[in-house]
Design goal:
It is built from 18 helices and 24 strands. The strands form 7 sheets. Strands 14-17-18-13-12-20-21 form a 7-stranded mixed sheet, sandwiched between helices. It has a 6-stranded mixed sheet with strand order 9-8-7-10-11-23, with helices on both faces. Helices cover 37% and strands 20% of the residues. The radius of gyration is 25 Å and the shape is globular. Among the domains are: 195 residues, Aldehyde Dehydrogenase, Chain A, domain 1 (3-Layer(aba) Sandwich), CATH 3.40.605; 194 residues, Aldehyde Dehydrogenase, Chain A, domain 2, CATH 3.40.309. Bound molecules: glyceraldehyde-3-phosphate. Belongs to the aldehyde dehydrogenase family. Keywords: Oxidoreductase.
Length: 556
């Protein structure tokens, strides 16, 4: 293991360095600025505006990065901290605080003007930015995200927050108008839903969580927030920022296992809005616990199994580089990752060979190293699961096309290009959420269409080709199957102003900077018959500033 400065100039770094015994560093080989000396622990939580010490049990947080405890010892996932393992009672205290702060819609926060709420969110953004380095470092250590991607996640989140503020001002301006229709004069504003429960995923523990948390808050909802199962420690530096930026009870944070904490919250019936990124099975189980599920508004980002379709006339260089990036960015741990590559048989072998070469050129290493793109995996048991998918594919006739594909070193799993994949193999259907590139050869477009139609999931897909007629036809046939079709490019959520959603078991609701503001609010209309008396009454309310809701004030 070489220090950071040397790794970027080592042209040979990718040649199976991951298989070497010194792939994982000794503690003293870690560049000083990236050492997490003494670990980082969270021993308090934020409830009702108080940072409360936690005196109960804790969960150990281990990094996917392995270190040797002593010379000659096997590298083990290093202990980097601990987080509170809260119980249902504590979670209910957090919910009670959110319910009280909402005050049935008459609490201070939902009563604030848009301008006041924006001020609080801006204060939070300023404080959050001051913790950039700490958050990036914790993303590297806890989920193994490369420094480059962790920095991108932080900056994208900060941009998302400022774009949300801008979009809310636009929305507010539009909502300040009155309309007269069918003899009725009316004004429609977007008002909060109530108490929101926000839960994020481990692969984007900051970004995806905040793309629901911030819109929920800024629209006037109060929130209980539970961080993802990994990627929890980065919330530590932000707890104080939440406390100082928002009035008591507006945001409450709980830690622990979902089964201990979330069940009681749902069963209480006090959650009005459920924002969840995870599996569709988990989401359904939690929604069903609510005593009045019809009252629970939900926005869900769920499973996906996005395919790439490579047509016979595709630009192969482009298709290969986009498919490798789409399948292996953050080791394939993106809900938008390309999980199955369907390639026309006329170029399938050439495609597989070029993908294998491209994978060989990727650099594996520790998250802080320059030029690294493949890193160890944070989920315990993940390498075993991935290996079982590879074994199943091999047992059914697939081969591993790239050198070292599917080999394991501790928590590191080297990407495997699997070919030819057939319908009976597990990896054809299961969302691997990891560094496997399964390639299917197809003869007829009908096979591709059948695959997409029969899939349980419908988030996105990619089509690679150059013939306008063929591409146009496929777009039409597949447009009602997914939320986004990417032409000659990998699947992705960004830019964040575009709608992000899915069909079937992939999502409920649509998120984007502007859509999220709509998701976390309800349009509420004040209307009256357009008689002279009523118009005078409305004018007096507005001119005399007798209402916070019925007002023509707006923000520039
Ligand atoms: O894991 C799902 C993320 O929202 C994907 O975002 O496509 O921009 O990486 P991304």
């Amino acid at each position: 293991m070489k220090p950071e400065t040397e790794s970027s100039v080592d042209g040979n770094k990718s040649s199976k360095n991951w298989a070497k015994p010194d792939f994982f560093p000794n503690a003293e080989n870690i560049p000083e600025k990236f050492r997490l000396e003494g670990g980082v622990s969270i021993n308090q939580t934020l409830i009702a505006g108080e940072l409360r010490e936690w005196h109960g049990p804790f969960a150990e947080v281990r990094s996917p990065v392995c270190l040797r405890a002593a010379k000659g010892a096997e590298p083990e996932p290093v202990l980097i901290g601990k987080t509170p393992l809260m119980d249902g009672d504590t979670a209910l205290q957090a919910l009670d605080a959110a319910v009280a702060a909402y005050g049935q819609g008459s609490g201070a926060w939902p009563s604030f003007s848009v301008a006041q709420r924006i001020e609080h969110v801006e204060q939070f953004l300023t404080e959050m930015r001051s913790h950039r380095e700490a958050v990036v470092e914790l993303l590297m250590w806890e989920i193994g995200k490369t420094r480059k991607d962790a920095s991108k996640e932080f900056d994208r989140t900060a941009d998302y927050i400022s774009d949300t503020i801008h979009e809310l001002k636009v929305l507010d301006r539009r909502s300040s108008r009155f309309e007269t229709v069918g003899g009725v004069v009316a004004q429609t504003r977007r008002l909060p839903v109530g108490v929101a429960l926000c839960m994020g995923p481990y692969n984007y523990p900051l970004n995806e969580t905040f793309t629901t948390l911030i819109p929920a808050l800024i629209m006037g909802n109060t929130v209980v927030f539970k961080p993802a199962k990994y990627g929890v420690l980065l919330i530590g530096p932000l707890l104080k920022a939440f406390q100082t930026s928002f009035p008591p009870g507006v945001i409450n944070v709980i830690f622990g296992r979902g089964r201990d904490t979330i069940g009681p919250l749902m069963k209480s019936g006090d959650v009005d809005m459920f924002a969840f990124i995870g599996t569709h099975k988990g989401a359904s189980a939690l929604k069903q616990m609510h005593p009045k599920p019809h009252r629970l508004k939900a926005v869900l980002g769920l499973d996906a199994n996005n395919p790439a379709i490579v047509l016979p006339d595709a630009d192969l260089d482009l298709a290969v580089s986009e498919c490798v990036a789409g399948a292996l960015s953050f080791n394939g741990q993106r809900c938008t990752a390309l999980k199955l590559l369907l390639v026309h048989e006329s170029l399938a072998e050439e495609f597989v060979s070029r993908v294998s070469t491209a994978v060989n050129d990727l650099v594996a290493g520790m998250p802080w190293e320059t030029d690294v793109s493949l890193t160890p995996l944070p989920e315990p048991g993940k390498v075993t699961y991935l290996r079982s998918l590879v074994d199943n594919a091999e047992a059914n006739g697939a081969t591993i096309a790239n050198e070292g594909g599917g080999q394991v070193n501790g928590t590191y799993f080297h990407p495997a290009v699997l070919y030819p994949i057939t319908t009976e193999m597990r990896v054809y259907r299961e969302e691997q959420f990891g560094p496997l590139i399964p390639v299917v050869a197809f003869r007829d477009e009908a096979e591709v269409i059948r695959h997409v139609r029969d899939s349980e999931f419908g988030q996105q897909l990619s089509i690679f080709g150059t013939d306008p007629e063929a591409m146009g036809g496929l777009i039409d046939v597949l447009a009602n199957q997914v939320g986004r079709i990417n032409l000659n490019g990998q699947c992705q959520r960004g830019p964040d102003t575009l709608p992000f959603n899915g069909r079937k078991d992939s999502a409920e609701g649509t998120l984007s900077v502007s859509d999220a503001l709509r998701v976390f609010s309800i349009r509420t209309t004040v209307a009256t018959k357009s008689s002279e008396r009523n118009r005078d009454l409305v004018t007096s309310i507005v001119r005399g500033r007798h209402s916070r809701t019925l007002t023509t004030d707006y923000l520039f």
